[in-house]
Each structure stands twice: as C-alpha cells, then as structure tokens.
Amino acid sequence: MKVNHNLEPFYDKNSEILILGSIPSVKSRELGFYYMHPQNRFWRILEKVYEEPLPVTIAEKKDFLKKHKIALWDVLSSCTIDASSDASIKNIKVNNIQKLIKETNVKRIYTTGKKAYDIYQKEVFPKTKMEAIYLPSSSPANATYSLEKLIKDYQVIKKSM
To answer: For residue 141, how many other CB atoms are within 10 A of its CB?
Structure first.
C-alpha cells in the first residue's frame, strides 16, 4: 500500500539531537504522533535513559522532547509498505532532512532500526554529510531485543551531549 508521511517533523531551533525512523507506523499515523503503538518501546526507553516519568499524552511527549533538545522525524516522505513492516518498504522518497538540520542546532543523528539507517546512509548522508548512529528498532517486531538491552544501547543519546 502506498503511504505518504502525514506527520510534521517535531523540532525547534534548539534541537541538538535528531532521531529518525523509517516511516510512521499505522498506529502513529492514526494517532498523529511518533511511536504511538502501545507495544512500541520508544517512550519507555527514553523514560529510563533520561530518568524521568513516562510521557503519556502527546503534549507530555512534546514537552519531554523539547526539554532534552530532541527532534523526531523519519527518513521517508512516502513509500509502499505492508502495514507497518519495514522489511516490505519499496518505492521510496526521502524527506528533506538537510532543511531540518539547517533550521536547528542538530549535532547528532540517530536512526531507529536497520531500514532507517540503510536508507539514511544511501539517500540522505550524501546530502547532509552528517554521520548517523544506528540504534536498534524499538518496535515490538524487534522481539530479539529486550527492553533492558534497548535502554543500554540508547544510553548513547544522553552520553553524546
């Protein structure tokens, strides 16, 4: 199914960290913000990394991101995809990530998942010349990674600043 990215990037001029996924999941597109599937561990990971209460509402999530100077977006503006399966992604178009970088203080870029990392390296890095650091997917489909292992791997975000 053809999917167009329907979420605005979340950032402000103070953003220093950019976290990129591939494209929002079905649930995230439905609910209007990033990492909204109840089984996705993204917000629980950040809760533990930053040792703060779990942000529950979209407003709380936005406040959390602003406080920690984190921008969220995705590498893809559109693609064909089966449900929310990154493995099925084809016919890609990438977002204008270099524009977001110019409008912020982004110093570090992280990708969540192999697909986002691979697309960033091939399609976006040549334009931005900023290395991305691979982080494992927080998706429930990535069952080989425990929450504890994800938290350990994501610590690099906090340590980099």
So the answer is: 16
